[in-house]
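Query structure, 211 tokens:
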């Protein structure tokens, strides 16, 4: 089984292990739109929430939206408690709890949102380190946050590791840090509009378990 191959595992969070109910996402973008004076369609909200178009800042620029205005507005309207209540765990992610190697989380989800979600779903103890990306650590596909997680886990380049995520930025961060990359596709590839290359391309983590 692929799950037995690696000395350590790293995971993205949103879209990989968990997701939020659509009603919460739609409500969030309505509030962001009110602040920016610019409405977001369902499709635009889906693209930005899930990163379907690749790098979100590049997508914002393409739509004529300044990321320096968007992200403060986005984080200002997010309600940590409401988001935690609206978040669910993908059933196939349960195998993470049984991994008998160091396990880390490397997520763009900010700590004030990630903490309530992890506690609400009772999965914090799945991870030996949790790295929430910042300007200081860098943002995937930059290898900085991945290297930070590896340092926390006490592993180095001599260990065989892997990072699993639902976007091209996750695989890019894995490769840039010298790890294998797993892309889990939670959406119809036609809705993503691009093919994400990876060492493993799967639709469910069950494919790695031989089930």
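Result returned for the query:
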């Amino acid at each position: 089984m692929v799950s037995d191959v690696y000395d350590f595992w790293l995971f993205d969070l949103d879209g990989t292990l968990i997701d939020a109910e659509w009603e919460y996402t739609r409500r969030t973008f309505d509030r962001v739109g009110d602040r920016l004076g610019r409405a977001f369609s369902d499709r635009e909200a889906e693209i930005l929430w899930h990163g379907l178009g690749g790098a979100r800042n590049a997508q914002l620029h393409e739509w004529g939206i300044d990321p320096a205005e968007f992200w403060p507005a986005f984080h200002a309207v997010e309600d940590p408690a409401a988001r935690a209540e609206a978040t669910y765990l993908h059933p196939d992610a349960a195998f993470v709890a049984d991994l008998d190697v160091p396990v880390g989380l490397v997520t763009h989800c900010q700590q004030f949102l990630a903490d309530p979600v992890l506690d609400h779903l009772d999965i914090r103890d799945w991870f030996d380190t949790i790295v929430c990306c910042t300007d200081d650590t860098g943002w995937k596909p930059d290898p900085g946050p991945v290297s930070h997680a590896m340092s926390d886990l006490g592993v180095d380049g001599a260990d065989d590791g892997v990072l699993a995520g639902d976007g091209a930025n996750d695989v890019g961060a894995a490769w840039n840090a010298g790890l294998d990359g797993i892309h889990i596709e939670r959406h119809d590839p036609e809705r993503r509009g691009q093919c994400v290359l990876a060492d493993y391309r799967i639709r469910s983590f069950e494919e790695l378990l031989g089930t």
